[in-house]
Write a structure and sequence with these properties.
The complex is a heterodimer of chains A (493) and B (108). Chain A is built from 14 helices and 24 strands. Chain A has 493 residues and is α/β, with parallel strands linked by helices. In chain A, the strands form 7 sheets. Chain A has a 7-stranded mixed beta sheet, with helices on both faces. Chain A has a 6-stranded mixed beta sheet with strand order 9-8-7-10-11-22, sandwiched between helices. Chain B has 4 helices and 2 strands. The two termini of chain B are 23 Å apart. The chains are: A alpha/beta (493), B mainly alpha (108). Chains A and B meet through α3 and α8 of A and α1 of B.
Chain lengths: 493, 108
């Protein structure tokens, strides 16, 4: 099938977006952003200077003072404008996601749908939640009520794997309740969000300062988090960084939503519908080239399910078509970075050294047309034991570890022994088995006959143990992050 | 049988309807051509209503383009849709119930 066209070949040096204007950074340090299918530079982003971060936060704060006074119906109208812009340009933004990240068009379109869904949800809940609560006559002549108040400027630090969706897990809710934001997109995949901001700037005409954008490395994140006018940080990324941020915001007395790493298990019972289960597993393990926190990475066939599922799964995985995601026939794109590819190769070496059997080897597989891309085929390890590194650590790539379990209890124990608690899937035809699994598995997102347990925007995005730090979660739950509740007890003589 | 991603199947089906529209236009069946164009648009719109992220598995089903020659007039187009879309709907059902429903409606 023909390639969908690239919106631009090169996006040049991206500018900061502060107070409604694109501003060239004065930094001398620029970071290259690549098209991973071609190993070509498609943009450069500045490692924003601390004084520029300060300007962005100050602009956001000034905007907040006006925005919080803006009536909710007006705020909602701006959210509708954002939705319209995203709807109008979703296909073009999806193509840029593919170009910068490497995922397939299907995956990028899904990401856009999810981003838009969060805007819709924020619109839906804005009025209902902002109404507050009221109880008359708690004592004679005394009433008590609760109002939600916005808090000011939030920092949003987003990961490379969902460059548009994750910022939109937070932005619409912040704006709906009267807050403003400074976003630091990943320096690896900054282009799609830059394009979204460009479109919003041109077409949505939001009041200046509502959304500000800075780019860069960890030092920029640190400047942002520690700024005295930032009340909290919403972050999605790796566990070590999330833990470090959690410690830092604790010291600073700020709020945080920190969604972190994962090691997800898919359990297949012997009674599962294998014709439906196996393709779904393929999508779960290899979608986004395994680079998503909801991807399963350990396959646990229970008892005789092993022979029913593993050979066919291996065969289907071997047939995945690698290529540039702008070709709709492609099943799996490249890794997003060369470093990520090297990390995956290193884990495969470790798996072999520790005695696992690599029954499907995707190393060295590349589409002919893209010899320089960061490609790797699907990999399946069998004879894996739970103590092996590949069974415990997050690989974030298309590598599956198969561990046989004799019973459901054993499978549940495996999952619960993991340091992570992001997601898990069960494939079965038994309601009783599914119920037991649901009750006993200690993870935040659960799929029953669903390989990617991705909560819709109107549910929180779960996560437990080292997959999440904080109290409230992303998506609709973040309304509690972006507001605080004021309780008023009132009497009139 | 051909292997598709959901996106490539949607694109293929929409192209098929557009090819039918061209054929019907060329033979002067204006109404049938308009209907095929509308169907192409409805098929593309399905992307707005599906939860793609959970449903990325490969789909093996017919290539409708292989049957294009079987339809020379509106009646044959209807028969072709019934035949081909019934099978494709069955194959796509586990991945996208929305697309399966639409195909069944377009072929009924």
């Amino acid at each position: 099938m023909a390639l969908a066209h690239e919106v631009m070949e090169n996006y040049g040096r991206l500018k900061l977006y502060i107070d409604g204007e694109f501003v060239e950074s004065e930094t001398s340090q620029y970071i290259k952003a690549f098209n991973p299918a071609k190993d070509e530079v498609i943009a450069e982003v500045p490692n924003t200077l601390p004084e520029e971060v300060d300007k962005a936060v100050e602009a956001a704060y000034e905007a907040y003072l006006k925005w919080r006074e803006t009536p909710i119906p007006t705020r909602v109208q701006y959210l509708f404008r954002i939705k319209e812009v995203l709807e109008r340009h979703k296909e073009e933004i999806a193509r840029i996601i593919v170009q910068n990240h490497g995922k397939t068009l299907d995956e990028a379109r899904g990401e856009m749908r999810r981003a838009i869904e969060n805007v819709e949800t924020a619109i839906g809940v804005a009025y209902l939640l902002e109404k507050g609560e009221y109880l008359e006559n708690i004592a004679k002549g005394i009433d008590e009520y609760l109002v939600r108040e916005p808090l000011g400027v939030a920092a949003i630090i987003s990961p490379f794997n969902f460059p548009v969706m994750v910022p939109f897990w937070f932005i619409p809710y912040a704006l709906a309740v009267g807050d403003t934001v400074v976003v630091k997109p990943s320096e690896i995949t900054p282009v799609p969000f830059h394009w979204v901001i460009k479109l919003l700037h041109e077409e949505a005409k939001l009041p200046p300062g509502l959304i500000n954008v800075v780019y860069g490395l960890g030092n920029v994140g640190e400047s942002l988090i520690s700024h005295k006018k930032v009340f909290g940080v919403a972050f999605v990324g790796s566990t070590p960084v999330a833990r470090a941020i959690y410690k830092r915001v604790g010291e600073l007395g700020k709020k945080a939503i920190l969604q972190a790493g994962a090691k997800n298990f898919a359990v297949v019972m012997p009674d599962a519908n294998m014709d439906r289960t196996i393709p779904n597993l393929i999508s779960s393990f290899f979608g986004n080239t395994g680079q998503r926190c909801l991807a399963n990475s350990v396959l646990v066939p229970v008892g005789e399910a092993y022979d029913k599922v593993v050979p066919k799964f291996r065969e289907m995985a071997s047939q995945l078509r690698l290529g540039y995601g702008l070709d709709e026939d492609v099943d799996m794109g490249p890794m997003a970075t060369r470093k990520g590819l090297e990390r995956v190769l290193k884990y495969i070496d470790i798996g072999l050294e520790e005695g696992a059997k690599l029954t499907l080897d995707g190393r060295g597989k590349k589409p002919e047309k893209y010899p320089n891309g960061y490609f790797i085929g699907a990999n399946v390890f069998e004879e894996v034991t739970l103590d092996m590194t590949i069974a415990r650590e997050e690989i974030f790539g298309p590598v599956v570890s198969v561990i046989r379990a004799e019973t459901l209890d054993e499978a549940i124990e495996m999952i619960n022994s993991s340091q992570y608690g992001n997601a898990s899937s069960l494939f079965t035809s038994s309601g009783a088995v599914a119920r037991k699994f649901r009750r006993e598995v200690n993870v935040g997102n659960l799929g029953i006959n669903v390989g990617v347990a991705a909560p819709m925007a109107f549910f929180p995005f779960g996560g437990r143990k080292e997959s999440f730090f904080g109290v409230v979660h992303g998506q609709v739950d973040s309304l509690d992050f972006f507001t605080d509740k004021k309780i008023v007890i009132e009497r009139w003589w | 049988m051909k292997r598709y991603t959901l996106s490539s199947l949607i694109t293929r089906l929409a192209s098929f309807e557009e090819a039918l529209a061209q054929k019907m236009d060329a033979k002067g069946y204006v109404e049938a051509a308009e209907r095929a164009r509308r169907y192409a648009s409805e098929i593309r719109e399905i992307r707005d209503f599906i939860i793609v992220e959970m449903t990325l598995e490969p789909i093996e089903t017919l290539d409708p383009m292989e049957f294009l020659d079987d339809a020379a007039n509106p009646e044959e187009v209807d028969n072709l849709r019934r035949r081909v879309y019934t099978k494709i709907a069955e194959d796509v059902e586990p991945v996208s119930g929305e697309l399966a429903d639409l195909l069944r409606r377009l072929s009924s």
